[in-house]
TrEMBL record:
Entry-linked Pfam families: GntR, Peripla_BP_3
Domain called HTH gntR-type: residue spans: 7-75
Name of this protein: GntR family transcriptional regulator
CDD domains documented for this protein: PBP1_LacI_sugar_binding-like, WHTH_GntR
Alphabetized GO MF terms: DNA-binding transcription factor activity; transcription cis-regulatory region binding
Organism: Paenibacillus aurantius
Assigned keywords, A-Z: DNA-binding, Transcription, Transcription regulation
Length: 378
């Protein structure tokens, strides 16, 4: 029997059961419907329903007990083409010390724990070379799939393309890789840049700088935030001055000269008539805000400053920093869900998966009415 999509009905039943096992509707050791129950549910013969169960058993997803029925195998016992399927999914991240990373990890771990997988964590330490080594080693070491937080959207393209072409399950978070078709889960960075610039324009700012320590070509996150910033200017009939778009300077800055570098940068932007600054992330925003206060430049009266990421430090400043909050937990959780679905060859997965962001306004952009103190209860 064939369905309307020219797919044999036993395969329809098999794929439905496979998806339910993947998504945890049937957990390890749970009993799946019997031949008779499946025949009635799908309106097919017992021969058809039996074949669906035989195929699932052949793929190593279930085992059958004589006189009892069919049951879902424990993940470590499942077989795929004669090989044991590892219950380990690896996550490669470029750093650990950040507000975002524990939430990414918790989201992924919560999903995987509930579906019988274990999460192994590997730190590339912002090194493309180390990231490449991990991408090469982990599939050979038994990792069933990889969740990758890339160092760069343009790095290690050849190995990522090879893994994707070979059908190895991989999902990127934070960034997407153009042109490869690799599934990604990212924040809506475009909307973050667009909404932030739009708010500043509505406040009367017409000279808004964009400051990023890295090139907009290096990571899709920074690029999309910049494109959103550009769109807000176009919609409001404002010209973007390339001289106040500052990018790709990270090689010039270190712990010893950071304060002097940002002070000089801020002085130059103010000289060019800038009244608001969108920054790559909260770290850059905080540096510029501290420099402004040290230089006697009132924030936000003379210059408004916005960060991105809602790091903990952004709240605890003399002038708290306005920022854009990302839902890191949801990104990690969604990436884990998608990579598990990929393991079971779900063909309905969207390549680009975008999680909404939330603008958080604090004192670095909020001008107070004259004579009203920020701590006033009135």
């Amino acid at each position: 029997m064939i369905n309307n999509e020219n797919k044999p009905l036993y395969m329809v039943i098999k794929d439905d059961l496979k998806m339910k096992i993947t998504m945890g509707e049937y957990s390890p050791e749970a009993q799946v419907p019997t031949e008779a129950e499946l025949a009635e549910l799908y309106g097919v013969s017992r021969i058809t329903s039996k074949r669906a169960l035989v195929e699932l058993e052949r793929e190593g997803l279930i085992y059958r007990k004589r006189g009892s029925g069919s049951f879902v195998k424990q993940l470590g016992e499942r077989e795929d083409s004669g090989e044991l399927v590892s219950p380990i999914i690896s996550m490669i991240v470029p750093f650990m010390a950040s507000y975002s990373m524990p939430n990414n990890l918790k989201g992924a771990s919560d999903y995987l724990d509930a579906h019988g997988y274990f999460l192994s964590i590997h730190n590339s330490d912002w090194s493309l070379k180390k990231e490449r080594e991990l991408l090469t080693k982990l599939p050979k070491s038994g990792s069933r799939a990889i969740i990758l937080y890339p160092v760069s959207s343009s790095g290690n393209i050849e190995i990522l393309s090879a893994l994707h072409s070979n059908g190895y399950p991989i999902v990127t978070i934070d960034q997407y890789i153009d042109g490869l078709g690799i599934t990604s889960v990212t924040s809506d960075n475009y909307a973050g840049g667009y909404e932030t610039a739009t708010r500043l324009i509505r406040e009367g700012h017409t000279r808004i700088a964009y400051v990023s320590s890295i090139s907009i070509t290096y990571r899709s996150t920074v690029r999309d935030r910049y494109f959103g910033y550009c769109q807000a200017h176009r919609e409001n009939g404002l010209t973007i001055d390339p001289e106040i778009v500052i990018t790709d300077y990270y090689r010039q800055v270190n712990d010893q000269n950071a304060r002097a570098f940002y002070s000089a940068l801020l002085h130059d932007l103010m000289h060019k008539g800038v009244t608001a600054i969108l920054t790559e992330n909260d770290y850059v925003g905080v540096e510029l805000l501290k420099c402004a206060l040290e230089m006697g430049i009132p924030v936000p009266e003379k210059v408004a400053i916005v960060g991105f990421d809602n790091e903990e430090m952004s709240q605890h400043l003399e002038v708290p920093l306005s920022t854009v909050e990302q839902n890191y937990y949801e990104i990690g959780y969604k990436a884990a869900e998608l990579v598990v679905r990929m393991i079971y060859q779900d063909k309905s997965i969207e390549t680009r998966n975008v999680v909404p962001v939330n603008f958080i306004e604090r004192q670095s952009t909020r001008k107070q009415p004259k004579g009203i103190d920020d701590d006033s209860e009135n």
